[in-house]
Specification:
Elements (H helix, E strand, L loop, with lengths): L4 E9 L2 E6 L2 E5 L12 E6 L8 H14 L4 E4 L5 H10 L3 E4 L1 H5 L2 H10 L4 E9 L5 E5 L4 E2 L4 H11 L3 E6 L11 H10 L4 E4 L5 H9 L4 E4 L7 H13 L7
Parallel strand pairs: 1-4, 1-12, 4-5, 5-6, 6-7, 7-10, 10-11, 11-12
Antiparallel strand pairs: 1-2, 2-3, 7-8, 8-9
Helix pairs in contact: 5-6, 7-8
Length: about 250
Amino acid sequence: MLRKRVITVLTFNDGVLYRTKLFRPDYRYTLNFVDAWSVDEIVVLDVTRPGEGGRENFERVIADFARRCFVPLSAGGGIRTLDDVRRLMALGADKVVLNTGALERPPLIAEVARAYGAQCVVLAMDVRRHEDGRYEVYGGFGQRPSGRAPEDWAREAVGEGAGEILVTAIERDGWLQGYDLELCRRLSQAVPVPVLVLGGAGTWAHMAEAFEAGAAAACTQNIYHFTETSIRSAKAFLAKRGLPVRN
């Protein structure tokens, strides 16, 4: 049986670690976290808006993480070309996270998959649930509607070569009220690749619910910032619930 993964997502604005709420930097952190965690993977995202900072600061963050952490490292934010991917991989990233750049030009997914393998390509999608219950993928930091249904975009992305799907429920970002389990189920049933869910985890039970809804990985951002003890306690809770996790 494949183990369920617990993944930490860290968001950086102009090279500074922040948590986010509704896709805006909400609270700045000044502490330093890396290699003592029991987390399975780390995802590091650049959420710097155009004109608000330079790419160099984020690249320094990736290089620093790559030197010091001992779990798989994914990097994303602002990737538009294969050259962008090459720079991040050269700095030490194990995977790259594609979002708006892939929405704007889906063949980018295939270009990266051909160069580095599908296992290195994480397709991130930011999804908004409308009042009528309809889900829609958004680009541009969750501000620009794409007209795409998440299941359709996930299938297209996997067809292009995406090896994993990372989905964030926009309206749940930072609220700690639980994942969108319906969205998780839909995507897990739509594609044969692992689905990673982000947005809303506030308790260990929320993580268990995501796994039970079909997620391969529960991604957390604001629930703990971030101690080895809390991650160990999360995994202990999940194991007692009968879920296969790495201890």
